[in-house]
Every structure is written in structure tokens, then in C-alpha cells.
Amino acid sequence: MLPRGSARTGAALAVAVGSRSAPARAATSPAARPPAATEAKPARGRALHVLCLHGFCQNAEVFRKKTGSLRRAMKGCEFWFAEAPHSAEGAFSDDNAEELGAGGGGGSGAGGAGPRGWWHAGENAQRAAGQERVRPAQSASCSGWQEGLESAGRDAEALAAEAGQGSFDGVLAFSQGCAVATALLRRAAAGGGGPLAGARFAVLVGGFVPRDAACAAQLRAGGGRAEPLAVHSLHVSGAADELVPRARSAALAELYCPASASWFELGATGDGRRWRRRAPRTARGPPIPTGTGAFKAALRGLLERAAGAG
């Protein structure tokens, strides 16, 4: 991770969401924090602060842009975006990177951070010329995992301080970011404190437990039978997702308290866009679900349950 204030600026972003979305600002100095709109605050108190962790080949700015509809459905929340430390430049062709959401305004060619990742597939270091790359979601050797986890923790701590909070109220994560979010929640539950020590809810879209045994053990608290994570959680999968099928997302959901966990399967009810993430041979990524219809209701229900627990 580059030091704050270096050439890679805007790695952490803050967005206040009420009836509309406020412009994103780089959360690198106290003056950069945008004021939360009055309509973004719940009637009973302050806005809920949400840590956002993007997926592979995205970055903080790309994730912000692609979650606009989802964030608008979560009224009463203020969103803070961390950014992965590892470059994913060249992981896929330029066209496929665009499909994954890492092109355009968030690309390095436009002055942005370019595609990023919380870890890489270690198998690719020994890849022969012309051989297909292993996707991080399928890797049994997560290269850079610990660096990614520590970077997320540092970014989150800085963002929480920028927000004037000791801890975030919740976390919104996508794909690869869901594993990092779960590891941070597990660390907090084990008494390690940190930026998610006071978290009450988690929205995990397309999440999975890494296939690397050492990484998976961190999510499971050393591989033992640790207590389920006591946060209200919403687990989202795609009915036609071939890269991370429901069974893999279910394995992640099992780490959360079943009494406060809920599930939403995109494409199963005809609600919203059909979500199809193809098998590893192609690089087409899933869309971020829109915050409409039944999914919007699921998000609102999660926030209401979390507010009742606070």
C-alpha cells in the first residue's frame, strides 16, 4: 500500500447518501470529509457509517460508481471506501478489465488507481506462456493475502477516524472483499478491536471462503469451532453464478450467526437484473445488484434489524 499523500491519491473515499448521493471526496485529510446531508441521518440519531470493500480488478472509485443504486436504497448511511494494495493491472485483457469494472474513470491511464486486488492467485507466478490464469476466487494459494488484510485494516482505521468514529456500524463488501470483511470481523470478535469492533451489520455480495487453507482458517478463527459472528448479515448470491456458486457463498454465511443472517438470491425471483458470472475461462464479472424491488426491501429490513440491536 502506498503511503497516504503519495501519487496514488483518492484511495479512500467517503460518500454521504440520503435521498441523493453527495460527491465523493478523498478522505485523506479532515477537510476532505463531506458533511452528511440531513436527510441521510436516521430520525433517531446520526448516520450509520459503512466500510466498503471492493472486489478483484475494481478499486475504491469504481466500486463507488457501481454501487450508486444500492447505496441509495440504504438511506441513513454514510459510505467510506477502502482500496486494495495490490495492482491487478494486466490480470485480464483491456476489454475484460472494462467488463470487470476496472476501466474508464477508475483506470490508471485516466490518473486513477487502476484495477486492484486484495490478493492474487499464487499459481499464476508459475504460469506458462499462453496458459489460462487462475482467478483469485479459485486459488488454493492466496498470494499477498496478509498484506491485503493489514492494508484493509489500516485504511479502515484511518477512515473511521476521519468519520469521527471509533468503529464502523457496518460493512458492504463485494466478492473478494467479503473474505477480507469477514476476517476483520473475526479479528474484532476475538477481542482484537479495530475498525469493525462495533459493527452491527454486513452486506456481503458474491462472497466466498478462500480455498487457501491458511486464509480460510483466519475466517474460522484458527480452524476451530469459534462462535458465529454476531452481526446482522445479508448474504447475496447469483442464481446463475458459475464462478462463485451459492454453495461457496453459503460456506461463508455459516460463519455468521444463523439467527440474524438472511439470504437474497439474485435472478431467482425475477427481481432486478439477472446475475450471471461465468466460469473461470472468461473474465466477465458480475454486475453490482441494483437497490430496487425485493432487494431494496431486504436491505432496508437489514438496517431496521441492526438499528433495533443497537
UniProtKB/TrEMBL annotation:
<feature type="domain" description="Serine hydrolase">
    <location>
        <begin position="48"/>
        <end position="261"/>
    </location>
</feature>
<dbReference type="InterPro" id="IPR029058">
    <property type="entry name" value="AB_hydrolase_fold"/>
</dbReference>
<dbReference type="InterPro" id="IPR005645">
    <property type="entry name" value="FSH-like_dom"/>
</dbReference>
<feature type="region of interest" description="Disordered">
    <location>
        <begin position="91"/>
        <end position="146"/>
    </location>
</feature>
<dbReference type="InterPro" id="IPR050593">
    <property type="entry name" value="LovG"/>
</dbReference>
<protein>
    <recommendedName>
        <fullName>Serine hydrolase domain-containing protein</fullName>
    </recommendedName>
</protein>
<feature type="compositionally biased region" description="Gly residues">
    <location>
        <begin position="101"/>
        <end position="115"/>
    </location>
</feature>
<dbReference type="Pfam" id="PF03959">
    <property type="entry name" value="FSH1"/>
</dbReference>
<keyword id="KW-0378">Hydrolase</keyword>
